[in-house]
Amino acid sequence: MNIVKKIPLFLLAILMLSENMTAQNARIKIDIDRQIGEVDKNIYGNFVEHLGRCVYGGIYDEGNPLSDEDGIRLDVLEAVKGLNIPITRYPGGNFVSNYNWKDGVGPKDDRPVRMELAWARLESNRFGTNEFVDYARRMNTEPYFAVNMGTGTIKEAQEWVEYCNVKEGPYYAELRKKHGYPEPHNIKYWSLGNEMDGFWQMGHLNAEDYCKKAREAGKLMKLTDPNIKLIAAGASNFRPDNDPHEWNATVLSELKNVVDYIALHMYLGNHEDNYYNFVSAPLVLEERTRIVKGMIAREMEKADRGDRDPIYIAWDEYNIWYRWRAEETMTGTRALEERYNLEDALVIAGFLNAFIRNADVVKMANMAQLVNVIAPIFAEKEGIFLQTIYYPLQLFANNMFGTSLDVFVDCETYNTDKFQLGLAEQATQQNGVPYLDVSAAYNNGEVVIGVINRHKENSITTDILSQEGLFDGEFKIFEVNGPNIKAENNFDKTEVKTIQKESVKLKNEAGFTYEFPPHSFTMLKGKIIQ
Ligand code: AHR
Question: What is this structure's pTM?
């Protein structure tokens, strides 16, 4: 049971005076004046790649009774809508590095079937640019396209922008009209390739060659439509024999006047079955964010960007991916069908908290991927179920907006063989990783607080205090949890999900006490009045 106790003003004053005393309860202090940056809704983005059953047998399943006449799986679409996805990346991923967009437009029966070399399948091309744009409109998301910087040419990239964004006149704009789309698609976000630093990427380049090609592609694309935003492929190869920072430094230096975002990718896994290492791992994303933020700041001093914003970070692939990584689970039509449990859901909440805490520089993030392939939604021919990781993403994407706040957290900590806090944190806090991982945002008088209790066994009783203004009215509380850290969902059972807990009713309170249960993610939402 969650203990809820209100803290009157006089008691708060005593609590604050006794900062040096060992407090029994953990503390979360919310100060609406300590602002980090605006939360960009695009951090709740997603990703659709022609991989396994993400497209075919996922969002699109021609002839299935659960699909409509366009082949769109309606049960999947309903679940997709629940995630309130603002932006969706397409069509890859590794797939894009040998993809010719022209194969995927025009009458479906005339489209060529190709060998798909990234994930070893046949690509029918029955789903392509226009089908994706139609789908994106139905799910109310902004399409975000990646161009082929591997085997593709800068001219193909330019022609794709012309096909999508030019109203009329030139050949490819007219071709789109001939294909039944009189109005341009106006695709705003375009990434210049995918993971081009990776030796696994088809057409992999070294940093200098990538920058030359990306700069020229970007030039042609922007001459075609000056309103587009460009995303550079940042480092994805974090193997010990490689220096990812060198790649990022070159990309930022060479493309500092060209691109609007640098894309970073991260996949985590619990290979050694070590719970505390695993749930701490999103801290690595935060460290990489800080490093790239510093690199951006250095380049922005020398940049000539007119009135454009500085370069931001797009974590345009993130997720948990380690079970389906052996050769036979990496290829074919059932590739990467990872099944998730509660600890995975807590790691996803950790990623999302980290994006919020770095809202000044992280302006886009895309969970990889949407359906079946390392995904929050799992579909078979007969139906779907929602994986554990669906729930934290759904809570964030429907609630956490506004200005990100720099939250003070004081709680017990732990150390693992892999994680102790970095030097900066050690200067101000106890050494160790806090059991409570917290983010918060303030929006028009309303505060939303996201709290992971990473403790496997213990609940943590916490005073939640407002430094500026008072908590008032009904605080809604949502909890993602399950019977144990390995609990999973499938077609027959939903062990991990969001439960709306009893609200806390507050009247001009300086704080309240809440007990966060073990291995849980809790979102609290209510008003602060001045
Ligand atoms: O999301 C799966 C794959 O992971 C993507 O295709 C690639 O970009 C990354 O390595």
Answer: 0.95
CA 37 to chain centre: 17
Question: Can you give the residue range of the structural domain that contains 480?
Answer: 4-38+404-529
Domain check: are 360 and 428 in the same one? Answer: no
C-alpha torsion 349→355→356→362, nearest 10? -160
- Summary mean pLDDT of the chain: 94
Which residue among 346, 372, 401 closes a domain?
401
And the tokens for 434?
Answer: 């806090």
Domain-terminating residue out of 359, 379, 401: 401
The 10s digit of each residue's pLDDT in 377-424 is 999 999 999 999 999 999 999 999 999 999 999 999 998 888 776 555
| CATH number for the domain harbouring residue 135 | 3.20.20.80
Distance linking the first and last C-alpha atoms of the chain: 31
Q: What is the pLDDT of residue 19?
A: 44
428 shares a domain with 390: no
Question: Could you tell me what percent of the chain has a pLDDT over 90?
Answer: 90
- Distance, CA 140 to ligand 1 centroid (Å)? 24
Question: Best of 89, 116, 265 to mutate for ligand 1, by most ligand atoms within 8 A of CB?
Answer: 265
The reply to whether ligand 1 has any atom less than 6 angstroms from the CB of 49 is yes
Hey, which of 123, 267, 325, 366 would you mutate to test ligand 1's pocket, going by the most ligand atoms within 8 Å of its Cβ? 267
Are 462 and 382 part of one and the same domain?
no
Give dist(CA 329, CA 327) in Å, integer: 5
What SS3 class is residue 253?
helix
Identify the active-site residue in 195, 286, 343, 509.
195
